[in-house]
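Marked as duplicate of an earlier ticket. Keeping the data here for the record.
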Amino acid sequence: MVARRFTGLTLTKKDRAALRRMRSKGEMTGRRWRRIQALLLLDKGLSLREAAKAVGGYGREMSRLAWRYLDRGLTVALGEEPRPGGKRLLDSPQEAAIVALVCGPAPAGRSRWTTALLAEEVVRRGIADRAGRETMRLVLKTHDLKPWREKNVVRSANRPGVRRMHGGRAAALRPSSPKK
């Protein structure tokens, strides 16, 4: 594929007027404002580098913007291109199985589930082909599960918690020694 060289940009009167109207409204994102400014500057005859420097962008960004305008028009040039995103590693039934696993008892010899332990168990049970700690963390976060906090503090009757039932502050946990 031969790369085309950018030779200049001339906006139509309709597009130029639309860009000036958009710029005067002022209600837009920074990216959109920068694209509007860049197209107007390129229309005035500035080079890609000069336009990029004027709006605080990069020459390559200006080149892509100009080619998008020339090839597909104003709305495409000002809009966002679809960004590549990875496909989801887990579907809903798999997530449900992980949630059920976490809500059950911890494995023998463990007091609670950890993300690493959960990832190993998910693969071992065949719920997913592969799973990492971060994926498990995200599943737990989206379902608002905190297995590491389950019954995290057991207090005896003579050492009450930090807050009382009525919400007021509790007394000191240990009696203070008299000052000398």
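See parent ticket for discussion. The helical segments are 13-25, 30-43, 48-55, 59-72, 74-78, 92-103, 115-124, 133-142.
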